[in-house]
Amino acid sequence: MILNNNPAIDVDVLMQRVRAEAEQLRSSGAIEFRRGEPRNLDDVRLARSLDRHQVVANLLAGADNANLRIDVPPRLRPFGPLGRFITRVLNYLFKRQREYNANLTSATRELLAMQITIGESVARSIEDLHGLERYRIESFREFRGAIDEFKSQLEGLNFAHHHTRLAVDEAVRSIGEQNDRLAQTDSRVNFAHERVDSAEADIHAISARLTALVEADQVRARAVSALPGLAARLEGVHERTEFAHRRVDSAEETIGSLASHLAPRAEVRLQIVDSARELEKKIGETQESLLRSLAVLRSEMLAPARPLPAAPAAVPEADDAVHAMIADRFRGSRVDIDERLAIYLPIVRAAKTVQKKSPLLDAGPGRGEWLARLQEEKIAAFGVETNRILAEECRVQGLAVETSDLLAVLRSRAAASLGAITAFHVVEHLPFEYLVDTLRESLRVLVPGGVVIFETPDPRNLVVASQTFYLDPTHLHPVPRELLQALLEGVGFSGCEVLELHPPEHPLFPGDDDLSVRLNAVFSHPLDYALVARAPRS
Questions:
Q1: Residue of higher predicted confidence among 364 and 285
Q2: What whole-number distance in Å separates Cα of residue 251 and Cα of residue 267?
Q3: CA gyration radius for the chain?
Q4: CA dist 342 to 2, 347, 371, 526, 528, Å?
Q5: 3 state DSSP class of 418
Q6: Which among 451, 407, 425, 411 has a CA at the least distance from the CA of 366?
Q7: Which of 23, 97, 258, 403 could form a disulfide with 391 if both were Cys (CB 3.0 to 4.6 A apart)?
């Protein structure tokens, strides 16, 4: 309104100049018109210099001019006093307008100053934000570097832990190997001590035997003269034994009749039965002792006279008498052996190959427990024994036993002439080549489907492998089941079956933890095993 009535200010020209100046600033890139707060320092610098800009100066100058009183315009000057009067009237009429314009200009300046202050504050805030952004970036880079360093350190620790774990495992394995070696060394030392003790005992026995050989001829002569009397005594023993058996049978009949009348008194009956069994056992032991004495005497009589040897250069092998003594001491009683061997009867019967024309051959029958059981079961069988005393003891019992070499007997037999072959605790006495030849000949002489049974100490039991196996000095070496099975299958046998026999009554290491189980697996393993195989049917 004022501008339109102020002849000194041309509003259109002024707006054109403002637009031209703004266009010039926009085209030169000095300012960017955006919404919101400034985003770069150029906007801040522009805000700081607004009051010095020409456009603002022109606007403020025009506003100041609009606040001044109007002089007499040139067009009214020709009218003289009337022109001045009109001018004063106009000034009076627009006095309030000028005051308003003055206040508006002052407010505009203050607002401009506040805008500049706000712009500076915004600029500082932007600068602070840029600083925070740089600090955040730097912190993130440092944090990223710290994470990378931590990862590398963690990888190093994992690598070191892995190598430490390997070193610990290696140390544990080495300690275990050392413990195994120490255990083996202890067992070897113990075995060496036992062998030394056994050698000393053999030396003492040899010394005693050398002393006894001086009187051998006299003993043989006395034995010849005493043979008729001994035979008579044996007949008497037989008669007394038969009488004792009759007495036992009569006692059993009497016990049976008494039991029917004294059923409530079961304890008395059991005591009587036990007494009768004890009496029968003592009679059997007496008979066995007499049979053994007779067998030893007959072997001594039949043996050729041996010259008294000079001092031996080495300890000789145990003779038949010593071996018979060892078998009696460490093999077990007749009752125990008979019970152990009874498990093989179903195997022999199931084969259905043992007949009179193809009997069973028992290699190394010893005291004849197995042959006696076969004889009771009416199964045709004979034995081959190299120990003269044991063979004679079997023959005294009425058992068919040859005193000969096992391999020689097998080679003399015709093909397919035997129904079964058994050998209990024999293979550990045989050299390897002899054992292989024995297996080959066994396959040849067996009828199709014929069965072989080999029982031997099981070296999986460390007590057996390191101690009890060497109680018999004629044992050569333990025979593992894997080796014996491989030999049997290698020569042509089939259907091999392993039986684990005679486990210890109580485990050596009580408990069910892993260590006790592992120790019992080697220290409380069954003492023996049997390997059953069959000849092919075609």
A1: 364
A2: 17
A3: 62
A4: 142, 10, 11, 18, 15
A5: strand
A6: 425
A7: 403
